[in-house]
């Protein structure tokens, strides 16, 4: 019995085809599947891409949307004082007039910063002087007394009393030596060693 041959057998596999992709299967790609290299500007033939990326038009729309997102110039991004947070002319060409205008603005900013710097330094200097007047250092508090020391005579120096004992309480009041009574056995032993009996007259040790 001869079975009817399927019409797709023997035909080349479509580009980007993955068997079983519709039922959740995943495949892998080899160098032979990729084929020859293509230029980056060539349209992408991604027929099995997810929705929104199927055609070149979809990809162009997405690129344009991303570019529009970079330049968020709606009312929510507008400040009454500073204007738009983004640059209105970031996508335009940078010409010589723009360079000259930037140089002028930079010079003005530098000049204004110098003026503010002078006033800022003057204000900081005044604040430091005011703080030192309100909270002087200990050296400044005794400066007048140090100058008066030059007027002290030799007799006045000698009449200055000596400084007392500056040691702490533990050093000033040392512990008393503890005495432990000696047992009587030591006295008995000492008495026994020091007691010498007289030798008899006929002792061989007596000369």
H-E order? HHEEHHHHHH
Write down the Rg. 54 Å
Contiguous runs where pLDDT drops below 50 for at least 5 residues: none
**Physical arrangement of strands within the biggest beta sheet:** 1-2
Number of strands: 2
Supply the number of helical segments. 8
For the termini, the CA-CA separation is: 155 Å
Biased composition (Basic and acidic residues): 39-67, 108-127
Biased composition (Acidic residues): 68-78
GO biological process, one term: mRNA splicing, via spliceosome
Organism: Myotis brandtii (Brandt's bat)
Structural write-up:
The protein has 207 residues and is mostly helical. Among the domains are: 12-34 and 42-63, no CATH class; 95-148. 43% of the residues lie in helices and 2% in strands. The chain has 8 helices and 2 strands, in the order ααββαααααα. The chain has helices spanning 31-34, 56-70, 96-134, 138-141, 143-148, 154-158, 169-172, 184-194; strands at 78-79, 83-84. A two-stranded antiparallel sheet has the order 1-2. A hairpin with a 3-residue loop joins β1 and β2. It is flat, with a radius of gyration of 54 Å. The termini are far apart.
């Amino acid at each position: 019995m001869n079975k009817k041959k399927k019409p797709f057998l023997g035909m080349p596999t479509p580009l980007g085809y993955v068997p079983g992709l519709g039922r959740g299967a995943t495949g892998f790609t080899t160098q032979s599947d990729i084929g020859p290299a293509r230029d980056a500007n060539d349209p992408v033939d991604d027929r099995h891409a997810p929705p929104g990326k199927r055609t070149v038009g979809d990809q162009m729309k997405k690129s344009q949307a991303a570019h529009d997102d970079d330049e968020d110039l709606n009312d929510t991004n507008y400040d009454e004082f500073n204007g738009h947070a983004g640059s209105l002319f970031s996508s335009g060409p940078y010409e010589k007039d723009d360079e000259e205008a930037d140089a002028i603005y930079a010079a003005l900013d530098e000049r204004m910063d110098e003026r503010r710097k002078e006033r800022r330094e003057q204000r900081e200097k005044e604040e430091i002087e005011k703080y030192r007047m309100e909270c002087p250092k200990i050296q400044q508090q005794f400066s007048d007394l140090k100058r008066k020391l030059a007027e002290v005579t030799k007799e006045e120096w000698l009449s200055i009393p000596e400084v007392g004992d500056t040691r702490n309480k533990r050093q000033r009041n040392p512990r008393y030596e503890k005495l432990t009574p000696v047992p009587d056995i030591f006295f008995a032993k000492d008495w026994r060693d020091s007691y010498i009996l007289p030798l008899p007259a006929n002792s061989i040790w007596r000369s």
